[in-house]
Automatic annotation (TrEMBL):
InterPro entries: DUF5687 (IPR043742). This is ABC-2 type transport system permease protein. It comes from the Bacteria. It comes from Algoriphagus chordae. The chain crosses the membrane at residues 21-41, 61-82, 103-129, 141-162, 169-191, 197-226, 280-296, 308-334, 355-374, 380-404, 416-440, 446-468. Pfam families: DUF5687. Keywords: Membrane, Transmembrane, Transmembrane helix.
């Protein structure tokens, strides 16, 4: 039965109308995965030297055992964003005369065959059988490596349950933030060193098989946790009902004050929170609000030419959603763009509604970035000036570039390693976005000081805001001029 299911999957792939396109994408991603895994193997081979360079005079095994917990915290984060759920094939399998248990085992087993499952094995195997084996023997190296790999595999099965149970809900986001805060933030802020608390577990694993056995049991438990959840919810209506109820009637009240454009902004907001890809963009924007912690407390950027880097950071923080979501400006509506063509004033109000939504969330990002004043008042001024520039100038620039040959995409697919809707404009967009703020800021900052540059940046942003109707008309007219060409491209099969 297992081989029959595998055969059906192959037939589905080969008979797909987009087989050639999917094959090319698979080859590209496979090459990328092999290249990244090769880099990991090289890092594993030289891991001992890397640890000795980072912690001179300390035992590299002790240093690694203290740092392993942070590796698994990173793994938890990238699995949360990258790991795919094995439920997309249920629609094509549940109607077949096959026991649901076998379908679940097949789907879960197939999800395990991923480059993510061998990262820990590739990275730590060379270190285990060179450094640990020399001090604790081959059995100690095997026991330690098995415990490390089993933790990674436990995270795989746990994440399958966690994402299906909490993905896109407020509880899931809160849990991820708490793990990030307690994991990395506790050590960074000096509350407690999580690595030192967990290190004894890995130290014991080098001389005893008990940690390995414990992690094996935990791995099996996590597998059956995922298996039972998927089995009990292996009905299409059960897997989708909770999501439909969760996101029904999620309106933003003040949008209704802006007429038809506000109503369409409300519809756009519903689109964001009801679809997997757009929700991922929204969540990534929230995570990137922490971007400033990398730079604002780093002494290397506090003076000299490097302090001008803060302008990019401020633009990125206050405009992250505008950048992420705005770069696919019309592609989000590719499935029903014809509806707006046949609606009186539909295209104009759609564009203005998107502007309203992007400006509202960018303003929210600015408000959420106010706590950066903890690092100094100048950072609040930087965020305020860059927000004004983003609202007055960058939003029109991003929209103009995004309207260059927009492409269709499926909103229900995940965002990671999904290049639907992405064209050359999205890759080239970063260049003017990096340059534009500095064209205004640098002349004043270099001839006078940083505050003069911020004043110039904010002033240009205010002028752009006051000229909003004229600037937005440029992009509205551009869409109207090319509306039939855009509509035709959106009708192409993905």
């Amino acid at each position: 039965m297992l081989f029959e299911l595998i055969r059906l999957e192959f037939l589905k792939s080969f008979r797909s109308t987009s087989f050639a396109k999917s094959l090319m994408v698979a080859i590209f991603l496979g090459f990328l995965a092999i290249m990244l895994l090769g880099y990991l193997l090289m890092a594993g081979i030289f891991l001992n030297r890397i640890l000795q360079a980072l912690a001179e005079g300390q035992d590299s095994i002790v240093v690694l055992n203290s740092g392993l917990i942070f590796f698994f915290l990173v793994e938890f984060m990238y699995r949360y964003f990258l790991q795919k759920l094995p439920v997309i094939e249920l629609e094509s399998l549940l109607h077949l005369p096959i026991p649901k248990k076998k379908i679940m085992h097949m789907l879960l087993g197939r999800s395990f065959f991923s480059p993510l499952s061998i990262i820990a094995l590739i990275l730590f195997t060379p270190f285990a059988f060179t450094e640990i084996a020399s001090q604790y023997g081959a059995s100690g190296a095997f026991s330690w490596l098995s415990a490390v790999v089993l933790i990674s595999w436990t995270l795989h099965w746990f994440m399958l349950w966690f994402k299906q149970r909490f993905e896109d809900s407020l509880i899931g986001v809160v849990i991820v933030f708490i793990i990030l805060l307690l994991g990395g933030g506790s050590t960074y802020m000096g509350w407690f060193n999580l690595g030192e608390l967990v290190a004894p577990f890995f130290t014991i694993a080098m001389s005893s098989f008990l940690p390995m056995i414990g992690m094996l049991v935990l791995c099996i438990i996590s597998y059956y946790l995922a298996f039972n959840y998927y089995l009990n919810n292996a009905y299409l209506e059960d897997l989708s009902a909770e999501e439909e109820v969760r996101f029904v009637n999620q309106n933003v009240g003040f949008f209704s004050r802006f007429g038809m454009a506000g109503e369409l902004a409300n519809l756009e907001w519903k689109l964001i929170i009801r679809h997997k890809k757009s929700r991922t963009f929204l969540m990534l924007s929230a995570f990137f609000l922490l971007y400033g912690t990398i730079f604002y407390d780093n002494s290397a950027y506090q003076s000299g030419p490097m302090q001008h880097m803060f302008i990019f950071v401020g633009s990125f923080i206050t405009g992250i959603f505008m950048i992420n979501y705005g770069q696919l400006f019309l592609s989000w509506n590719s499935g029903y763009f014809d509806f707006f063509l046949n609606l009186k004033g539909g295209v104009e109000n759609l564009i203005k509604g998107k502007y309203l939504l992007l400006l509202s969330i960018s303003f929210l990002c600015f408000l959420l970035s106010i706590p950066y004043v903890y690092f100094g008042w100048k950072f609040l001024l930087i965020h305020f000036a860059t927000f004004l520039f983003n609202a007055g100038i960058m939003i029109h620039l991003i929209t103009y570039l995004a309207l260059w040959k927009p492409k269709p995409m499926d909103l229900n697919k995940g965002a990671m390693f999904n290049y639907e809707g992405v064209g050359a404009a999205q890759f080239l967009m970063i260049i003017p976005m990096l340059i534009a703020p500095y064209l205004i800021y640098l002349p004043f900052a270099l001839f006078f000081n940083m505050y003069a540059g911020l004043a110039a940046l904010g002033t240009v942003g205010v002028i752009g805001i006051l000229s909003f109707n004229k600037l937005s008309t440029i992009n509205v007219n551009r869409v109207l001029k090319n509306r039939y060409e855009i509509s035709s491209s959106f009708r192409q099969e993905l």
